[in-house]
Recover the amino acids of this structure.
């Protein structure tokens, strides 16, 4: 048998190993961002779970949010490893896509849960924090994670386009039908969350009006402090809503409008803010809570900060 000059026999017996592609700026950003997201959210989750006093409903929701964002960071790291360190395969694509879908779904639903918690803590302040409220929060989180896991299992259960490229969406290997359902659900959650924050604004305005009617009974400095605190609270609310809408709305709309023929740059431009939400959530939600900050400061400087069991409920969050 003569040797084919294009396919030497020695290469058939000893196939060449997989060549790892060169590291790019996108790969470095993927690895660094995934590591930062996983690290800061691991700190938040560990802090909440290791502190017995942090068991109010809001802390359960923040722990769920931190766990979801932690999984998003792990998914980004795995995606980097499969791209630049080991040979990619179908199962690696299904694993990373399923993990990202699970984490982003749980993160968005946990954000809705935080908004619901804020609304209930203002409108039902007398009963907030009871054992019944904690049980309801636990049931809500159980439903959130069950739904997120069901959605995340979709690619592995056959909702992928690895064998049918024409059915791919803007986010391979997800099919367009699957991504449309996912993004439609994202938009519903975003709208419900915005409605909850609108309700929070209405309740806060009623409280501000009640304070204003009693202003002549308050000292001048106390009245100024009340107005200053209210204005600062609305500024924080606007910041939180701006980041929330800016992170989640672009990808939710693009997933519905785009298809496999759309430029990949648009997909990255809309997916990066959604993943970036996992980087900003600990700063905007968990680390703004006085009790979580106090526990972290006690862990860093135990000789300076003494234990205080007073809990600040979610108007601080």
């Amino acid at each position: 048998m003569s040797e084919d000059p294009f396919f030497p026999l020695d290469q058939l017996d000893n196939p060449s190993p997989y060549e790892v592609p060169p590291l790019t700026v996108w790969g470095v950003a993927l690895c660094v961002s995934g590591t930062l997201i996983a690290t800061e959210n691991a700190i938040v989750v560990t802090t909440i779970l290791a502190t017995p006093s942090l068991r109010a409903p809001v802390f359960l929701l923040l722990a769920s949010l931190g766990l979801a964002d932690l999984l998003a960071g792990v998914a980004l790291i795995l995606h980097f490893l499969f791209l630049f360190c080991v040979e990619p395969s179908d199962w690696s694509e299904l694993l990373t896509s399923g993990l990202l879908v699970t984490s982003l779904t749980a993160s968005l639903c946990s954000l809705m849960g935080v908004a619901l918690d804020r609304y209930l803590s203002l409108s039902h302040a007398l009963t907030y924090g009871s054992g019944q409220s904690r049980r309801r929060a636990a049931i809500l989180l159980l439903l959130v994670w069950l739904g997120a896991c069901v959605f995340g299992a979709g690619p592995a259960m056959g909702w992928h386009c690895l064998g049918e490229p024409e059915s791919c969406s803007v986010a391979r290997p997800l099919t367009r039908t699957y991504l449309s359902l996912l993004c439609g659900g994202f938009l519903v959650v975003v709208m419900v969350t915005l409605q909850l924050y609108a309700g929070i604004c209405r309740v806060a305005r009623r409280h501000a009006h009640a304070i204003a009617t009693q202003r002549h009974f308050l000292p001048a400095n106390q009245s100024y402090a009340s107005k200053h605190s209210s204005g600062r609270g609305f500024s924080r609310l606007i910041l939180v809503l701006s980041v929330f809408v800016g992170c989640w709305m672009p990808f939710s709309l693009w997933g519905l409008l785009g298809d496999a023929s759309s430029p990949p740059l648009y997909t990255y431009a809309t997916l990066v803010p959604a993943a970036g939400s996992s980087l900003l959530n600990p700063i905007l939600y968990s680390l703004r809570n006085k009790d979580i900050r106090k526990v972290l400061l006690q862990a860093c400087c135990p000789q300076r900060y003494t234990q205080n069991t007073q809990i600040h409920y979610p108007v601080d969050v």
In short: The first helix runs from residue 9 to 13. DSSP finds nine helices and no strands in the chain.
